Amino acid sequence: MSNTTPASSPSATRTSSRTVAAVTDSLNADTTHGTTTVDDSVVAKIAGIAAREVPGVHDLGGGAARAIGALRTRINQADQAQGISVEVGETQAAVDVIVVAEYPIPLHHVADGIRTAVTTAIETLVGLEVTEVNVTIADVHIPSDDDSADEAPRVQ
Known about the structure:
The protein has helices at residues 10-25, 40-52, 63-74, 107-125, 143-150; strands at 30-31, 34-35, 57-60, 84-88, 92-102, 129-141. By secondary structure, the chain is α+β, with helices and mostly antiparallel strands. The strands form two sheets. Strands 3, 4, 5 and 6 form a four-stranded mixed sheet that branches. Strands 1-2 form a two-stranded antiparallel ribbon. The longest helix has 19 residues, at 107-125. It is elongated and about 75 Å long. The termini are far apart.
């Protein structure tokens, strides 16, 4: 099936193309063959995957969420939407992200990268307009903290 329809004038073609584009841009739209609905958890998962790929992101979620996430990872049930909450409407979405950033990467660079990655992923994969991406930096991960856990104890 083609997205273009024949028309008698250029302005009619332009109008019908915009109408088709408006219908196909949003996955939550009615079509002649049925409806497609994207669950909020899918949007949250897409946002989580995009946020994790940003340089300077160590983990997503606050302390309790990361503890539960560590347990889920051990049993191969990792939660890609950990630390993400979304509000999804008919054509728009808003996202809240809680993140642990890597030290010493500037926090505003991490936040800007998350906003860009999440917005691009949701708009590209889901077709929803992202109205806002709120980033909360809950902690800063210092790589030396991991190294000290692997060292032998000082006193035996």
